Amino acid sequence: MVTRSLFRLLRMTRGFITELLGKRDLIVSLSVRNFKSAYLGSLLGVTWVLVEPLIYVFLLWFFFTKAMKFKPPEGYPYVPWLMTAMALWNFISLTLTSSAGTFRSHAFLLKRPEFNMSVLPVVNILTGLYIHAIFIVILVVLLLLSGIPFTFYWIQSAYYLFATAALLLGLAWIAASLSLFVKDVGNIIGVMLQIGFWISPIFWSLDTFPKGYRFLLELNPVSYLMEGYRKSFLYAQPFWNDLNGFLYFWSFTLGVLLIGVFTYRKLRPHFGDVI
After folding, report:
1. How many angstroms separate the Cα of 5 from the Cα of each of 9, 14, 18, 216, 262?
2. Separation between Cα atoms, residue 44 and residue 46, nearest integer Å
3. pTM for this prediction
4. I need a surface site. Which of 45, 106, 112, 181 has the fewest CB within 10 A?
5. Is residue 149 one of the residues assigned to a domain?
6. What's the first-to-final CA gap in the chain, in angstroms?
């Protein structure tokens, strides 16, 4: 019975994602419009999104290198080493923070039965990718100025970015759907992001922890993504070297996607009752 339900859910998820792929032109168009309205309508625009994480980078650099004398593995310069993970974390944080209010902020679309509301979290993620592209440009400049040469492993970062987007999509469907019925979802996401910032290897390395405790930190799927970005831009290591991490992350992400599709499908008929 459980196996039959699982296969039914898998088929539903496959059909769900196939339907979204068929609307890719609409998704791109909406994401460009969303980006323009969110960031190009103010005096400083995108600058506001860049300032906060860059300030974090400066403060963490000063505290860990000047006060605590922390040195990244293999002697890499701290700023590009930190920025590699911070760029990805900013994408995760920005996307999840805005995902909770995605459906509510587009309540007018509920009057159009032909419109598939499930595309909105995808639009949200794609908008975040435009900001992330700016961070990648800054990161590349930092790497080159620090004497870290280009390698073909940099291209591997696209795999980890895709993996991040897949995890965020499942989480966004869950958060956006539940937030219509539970107004505390936005606050819960804020708290979880604060916790996630400290337990993810952004400004510290997994290698600094004893092996007996390290596996607990590796249960955090974001650890796989952060380390993957560093393997791509700094360590020049292929993603298939970490087969256990690969299997764990994608098992976890598939579970989140299934829950996300199920949550949206279950609650979608009741959206109009609470908006």
Report:
1. 6, 14, 20, 31, 11
2. 6
3. 0.85
4. 112
5. yes
6. 36
Q: Is residue 16 part of a domain?
A: no
Residue 141 sits in which domain range? 28-274
Could you give the number of structural domains in the chain? 1
- Residue recorded with tokens 């190009």: 40
Q: What is the pLDDT along the chain (275 residues), one digit of tens a residue?
A: 546 655 665 666 666 667 666 677 777 777 777 777 766 665 556 666 666 667 767 766 666 666 556 666 667 887 888 889 988 998 999 899 888 888 887 777 766 666 778 888 888 898 888 888 888 988 898 889 888 889 999 999 999 999 999 999 999 999 998 988 888 888 899 999 999 988 888 877 777 777 777 777 888 999 999 999 999 999 889 999 989 999 999 999 999 998 998 898 888 877 777 66
Q: How many angstroms separate the CA atoms of 23 and 218, rounded?
A: 35
Within-domain flag for 76: yes
- Is 7 inside a domain boundary? no
